[in-house]
Amino acid sequence: MIRTLVVDDDFRVAELHAAYVRRVTGFGVAGIAHSGTEALEQVDFLRPDLVLLDFYLPDFSGLEVLQRLRDDDHPSVDVIAITAARDVDSLQAAMRRGVIHYLIKPFRLAAFEEKLTTYAAARARIARLSEADQTEVDRIFGTLRASGRDALPKGLSDTTLELIVGALKRADSGLAAAAIADAAGVSRVTARRYLDHLCRLGTAEVTMRYGGPGRPEHRYRLLKGA
After folding, report:
1. Sites in the chain below the pLDDT cut of 50
2. Which domain range does residue 104 map to?
3. Has residue 192 been placed in a domain?
């Protein structure tokens, strides 16, 4: 269970986000805070795994909360920033300070669930490392922070795309959609949507593998230079 602290100055919004957290498999609400001071206190007392951190708080900004979490003597915790689309500068500053990812207000449950599921998949991959490898840890969480791609079709996200691409890179000979879904920590339907997108871009190709009884198997691989 990934214990999550929800931080938002609006009581109704905080409760809504907490309700969203409870609906995502593998996540639970550790607590709710409504100010920067309370957020820091709750991190120290509750020691959550993840903080959903709103940028706009009554005492000081979410950026300052993030800075204090990193600079002062607080327990280590992952942070997903929650901000308005217009606040680009603050978002970029947050990413430089180690925010794992971000959510742009307003968002629906589906977008919220996808961000948390992607984060959980990356966290699980790190947990499976037989020995802590900082380079690999940085690479995994770096995929969550990646945001330099062209705009994706509606319903697709950069973070999940990076996980799909990462799974493909580890299999030069190609993989079936089911195997890619397992490697990326997403559903088979979700994997197919991203694989189809990569094929349309010319980044990946799909081939048919025959040999066994029944329908031939679709196998996907990245093209050279992708």
Report:
1. 130, 146-150, 225
2. 1-132
3. yes
